[in-house]
Amino acid sequence: MSAAFLSALLFAAAPPADAPLADAVETRDAAAIDRLLDREEPGVNLAQPDGMTALHWAVRRGEDSIVARLINAGADATAETHYGVTPLALACELGDAGIVRRLLDAGADANARFPDGSTPLLSAARTGRPAALKALLEAGSKPNAADPRGQTALMWAAAAGHATAIDVLVAADANVNATLPSGFTPFLFAVREGEVAAARRLLAAGVDVNAPAEVRKGARNGLRNGTPPLALAVENGHFELAAALLNAGAAPDDLRSGFAALHAISWVRKPMRGDGDPAPTGSGSLTSLEFVRVLIDAGADVNLRLKGSPPGHPGLNKKGATAFLLACESCDVPLMTALLDAGADETLTNADGTTALLAAAGVGALGSGDEPAATEAEAVEAVRWLLDRGAKIDLVDDRGETAMHGAAYKNRPDVVRLLAEHGADPAVWNVENRSGWTPLEIASGQRRGNFRPSPETIAAIQAVLARPFTVRSD
């Protein structure tokens, strides 16, 4: 029999540690607590098998009077369980300022490091009780101490939306501009989580509402370098917070993230399907369409054009695209309508000369696993809406793409039939684009990153080509 096995066997057979006072406090047995504490040797620091003492349990239960009696009886305020948990760690999670003060007065370390590398102040900041934070700071807790990932108490309070805790930490000279390698600051944490009150407190403390994310080279899971707070709020669906940022002076047409807030509305409302990210949960009572009006009223240029394609947004070439063209790409008729009502120019194209109709039909190849934001029914609605407004059906962009090429890219047989019914001329669209593909060849699998044929789209195009072409009189 090995020594290790014997040791394990003996340990398993050993009776649990005898800690009657800890057991009594755990079960809230008041009579047993009184009886044991009245003894000359109450065994106040005896621990259960996992290291929990009576004081641990009294703190966890929030029993301030019992905490006081145990400390008076000699309980060790620095005792650790077998997992390194101290009474102060439990008190900070609870946020009970009275118990925190008692433990600090009894010798608990205000700057101790817990097993996860955090400090009492960091732990209390997550709970957000200002009185507990004040007690720790008065006992010497360092306001800018960080956990192993570099996160500070102010970052935790901001992310959790604890506005009054932010006030306490700022008053103690917590660094409002502390920055992680990922680019996150306390303010950007508040913005990402949609915490309006927390964001306002930090702005009042002097944070620049337009300060972009500064991401260190090689940082993982970070923001896009240069992302301004407004863009972060909009991409996370926090439109009420975004409106507050605009009121605080956020620049509505800031393009440092590669797009302005108005452009982002299209993919926030209708993100790419398949391997794309889901729509954000968002927050607040302001809808995305209401926020469009807020942006315009704040001075956003409804016809602002992108300088390039933002990372992570395949499909249509975004260079030169306006918010309206992006809304057409996602076949979002309510957004298209809202933008037109706000003065959008529906004739503006991207750098390839792609029109609103071509974008709605589907021009812009996607990679394998990617699916367009719009369903085919939504695409039919958007294409019909544009045609009813007089969109020219036989235009060809600079890459040789037509609306019919777009329908083939996105596997939309109903759009193929709709275009044919509205007089799309085969002499115009049944030609090779710059890549050398006709709509039928695209439907058969000739496209970048995705070689799967679409039998339904192939059949629809072949049926259109097989019937006589008639020019519509309307």
UniProtKB/TrEMBL annotation:
Leader peptide range in chain numbering: 1-19
Alphabetized UniProt keyword annotations: ANK repeat, Repeat, Signal
Family annotation (Pfam families): Ank_2
Highest taxon, organism lineage: Bacteria
ANK repeat residues: 50-82, 83-115, 116-148, 149-181, 182-214, 225-257, 399-431
InterPro entries recorded: Ankyrin_rpt, Ankyrin_rpt-contain_sf, Multifunctional_regulatory
Keyword Ribosomal protein attached: no
Stated name of the protein: Ankyrin repeat domain-containing protein
Organism: Alienimonas chondri
